[in-house]
Fold this protein.
Amino acid sequence: MRFASRLVAAFLSCVTLTVHAAGELKPWPGGDTPALELQDLSGASHRLEDYRGKVVLLNFWATWCAPCREEMPSIGRLKKQLAGRPFVVLAVNVDEPESRIKNFLAMLPLDFPTLLDPGGRTAKAWKARILPATFLIAPHGRIRYTVTGELDWASEQVVRTVSELLPAANSER
């Protein structure tokens, strides 16, 4: 029964994503930045506060989510464009078995940490109800932008927006 419920939830998320597939980077309306402390596939712990001083792109995704899979390469291109700058990508897989994630990563290796969110508790705390859900966090640790749905992270406008958050570009952000 749990599998059937998950299957229905996945289907509804995909249907909802079809409507929201073209994501748009939007300013964060406010509120506190939720805590984040998760392990990656090798068991290393990652806490959001460990990345203070850097811009963090926090992406909630799942292997079954077509828009999630489609946007991953552009996230990798953004990371390459900002190489050497205080910028980090954290990809949070929402509630999937490690074996499924590892199989996916064997086909599409990622150049950034994949964090595990068993049970989806962290996604719930971040209100990431539709996948992909992505948050851009400024060096001081506050969310500045969010997007629901697929986005071309390597587009000129998005790169410019992310670059403006980097400490070298503007230490107040």
The chain is about 35% helix and 25% strand.
